[in-house]
Design brief:
By secondary structure, this protein is an alpha/beta fold. Helix content is 39%, strand content 22%. An 8-stranded mixed β-sheet has the order 7-6-5-3-4-8-9-18, sandwiched between helices. It is globular.
């Protein structure tokens, strides 16, 4: 079925014409929130696109963007679209070699970057880029007074906008460019859990229809407020951008990564679209604070949460809510305790909370519903614009991702593979016909995920099909599901579980440095480094107790029997995680092969770990540490 669709750039033009003075977005500078109305946004996009043409950029060229979430990213994004071009999202924490790969793979002729940090990365590899890249555009030039003279290929975004405003030839050239819905408007890197990321080619039609379909289920209104928190190159945030121009709601940007929590609290958005990891972090933060609270405060919180969890369990089971005195006590708890907790973490006004992109444990779902927040999950991926299945209001089952969305077909084949047929399925992968042909077959997207439909018509996603594991006794388990249960603990930052073709399950844990550090400080436990803290006997006992709590709720064959605490965080710079913070299991298996084998040797109590680590600036060194192998 074909849907009517429009280019996304037309939506900005329409908003500017109909509501020129309405605030479109807010951004924070030096602690002060500043508004930008639709006319201002439209004019800056228009003049930036004209400026690109004045620079010599050709209609249809590709443009890479690297930086934190900001209005300038949107201006560059829609400016590229306006000249019939394609913007390519690049994660701001990528290293020079990763950026070089994406710039080369995308055939980008222009790179738009945020600041000196990103420019320095590009300067270090300029010899590899100069034959294809025309200019590097910078939007925050603080500390770069001498850069523009030294590197003539640099230009400030304001200068590009000024060129567009003053060049009548560029204006005439822009007017001759026709944008149609079927044109590619963006290329986003896939997660790259199995290797180098592919570039997904996404059209205006894909994004417009995705917004249309979700609007039928969960409408967004002009008075709604969203907060830009997910990375801009991630489909989840681009979907939020598309709904912003589609629905005309407010869109808010944090001042910096350091002020994300503070700014989120100040905005108090009505819509929250966060990754499972972010919801887990908020949950862990709340629970860690309450663990350290005084006796009375902790007791009140505990009793309030108990009532909330009881109500959540009834809701999730489709049963009537609390009755009588318990109902009264819950509402008392909501007004005296739970609402205040929501307010403190920025969720005080949220009317709809959505997550997707990875599995989320039942415990996390229950926690938010206990706080009175309607948390719903959708299932999708970059290749179908995050549109496949979605929970409906009042029909939420935490183990599922909901039934298929309107106009979308989802099937599970005999091997358990999930396939999706949708008008939001993308064109394919840029310059990669082999992967395109393998992934898209007869209009169906092969997701690579394993799952099934439950008796209510909800899709249950187990894990990546290649990652499902079987114990020697034939017991099947999803390692990601176990890891999500472990990460419900405020003291566990990341977890990887093992057990394929083994007799029992083991876990590799990366502690949450902040929460575990606070716990240690309050108990006068001295430590000097992450490694020192992770191997402390009392910390090991703490994590063992947390895992035992999970084990108590699992069948015997699914319980974790041994563990090791890593002396470092799992990190994208070491290729252990993707830039969207998903575990790269193949890399983990190779990098920690000896540790994993040691976990399955009952006589081993320690292991001498010796691995290479990479710093943010690209420098490398070796980490040598004795890690303890513990029974649970």
């Amino acid at each position: 079925m074909m849907y009517e669709a429009r280019p996304l750039t037309e939506l900005i033009e329409e908003r500017a014409a109909q509501s020129p003075n309405k605030t479109a977005l807010r951004y924070k500078r030096f602690g002060i929130w500043k508004p930008m109305n639709w006319k201002e946004l439209h004019d800056r996009v228009l003049n930036f696109s004209r400026g690109l043409l004045a620079l010599g950029v050709k209609p249809g060229d590709n443009l890479c963007i690297i930086g934190d979430n900001s209005p300038e990213w949107l201006i560059a994004e829609f400016g590229a679209m306006r000249i019939g071009g394609v913007f390519v999202g690049v994660y701001q924490d990528m290293q020079s070699r990763e950026i070089t790969y994406l710039v080369s793979a995308s055939d980008a002729s222009v790179i738009v970057v945020e600041d000196q940090e990103q420019v320095d990365k590009l300067v270090s590899v300029w010899d590899q880029l100069k034959d294809r890249v025309v200019r590097i555009v910078v939007w925050d030039s603080r500390g770069m007074s001498h850069y523009f003279e030294r590197y003539p290929y640099l230009i400030h975004m304001d200068d590009v906008i000024a060129m567009g405003r003053e060049d009548p030839t560029a204006a005439e050239a822009l007017d001759r460019i026709e944008i149609t819905p079927d044109m590619t408007c963006m290329m986003l890197p896939t997660s790259g859990t199995t290797g180098l990321p592919k570039l997904a080619q996404i059209s205006h039609y894909n994004m417009y229809v995705a917004s249309t379909l979700l609007q039928q289920i969960h409408p967004v209104y002009e008075w709604d407020e969203t907060y830009s928190l997910l990375p801009m190159p991630w489909m989840g945030e681009q979907f939020t951008v598309c709904r912003f121009v589609f629905s005309g709601n407010g869109y808010n940007f944090p001042e910096s990564q350091d002020s994300v929590k503070t700014d989120f609290h100040e905005i108090q958005p009505t819509l929250a679209t966060l990754s499972p990891r972010m919801y887990e972090d908020i949950c862990s933060d709340i629970r860690a604070r309450m663990e350290d609270a005084g006796f009375l405060k902790k007791w009140i919180w505990s009793k309030s949460l108990e009532l909330g969890v009881e109500r959540a369990d009834l809701f999730l089971a489709g049963k009537p809510g609390l009755r009588g005195i318990k109902r009264f006590l819950y509402w008392l708890a909501m007004f005296t305790t739970l609402r205040g907790v929501r307010q403190r973490v920025g969720l005080g006004r949220v009317r709809m909370a959505v997550t997707g992109g990875a599995a989320m444990g039942r415990e996390v779902f229950t926690f938010y519903i206990a706080l009175g927040i309607d948390l719903m999950q959708l299932y999708g991926m970059t290749e179908n614009c995050a549109c496949a299945t979605c929970h409906r209001k009042g029909d939420v089952r935490p183990e599922t991702t909901g039934p298929p969305m309107p106009g979308i077909e989802v099937k599970v084949d005999q091997e358990g593979m999930i396939w999706v047929k949708s008008p939001t399925n993308i064109k394919g992968y840029y310059n990669n016909p082999k992967e395109t042909a393998d992934t898209f077959q007869d209009g169906w997207l092969k997701t690579g995920d394993s799952g099934y439909f439950d008796e209510y018509g909800h899709l249950v996603v187990l894990d990546r099909q290649k990652d499902l594991m079987f114990l020697n006794d034939g017991t099947r388990f999803a390692p990601q599901d176990l890891a999500n249960r472990l990460k419900f603990s405020p003291y566990i930052r990341e977890a990887v579980t093992f057990g394929d073709k083994r007799d029992f399950i083991t876990a590799m844990i990366s502690i949450d440095m902040e929460n575990v550090g606070n716990w240690a400080n309050k108990r006068n436990i001295t430590y000097t480094t992450f490694t020192d803290l992770s191997q402390n006997d009392r910390i090991i006992d703490l994590i063992r107790e947390e895992i035992q709590k999970i084990n108590d709720r699992l069948p015997e064959e699914m319980r974790i029997h041994r563990m090791v605490l890593l002396p470092k965080e799992l990190h994208p710079d070491d290729e252990e995680l993707t830039r969207t913070r998903k575990v790269r299991r193949r890399i983990i298996n190779e990098r920690y092969k000896e540790v994993i084998e040691a976990l399955y040797d009952p006589g081993r109590k320690t292991h001498e770990l010796d691995i290479q680590i990479t710093y943010m600036d690209g420098n490398v060194s070796r980490l040598k540490a004795t890690v303890k192998l513990e029974d649970i």
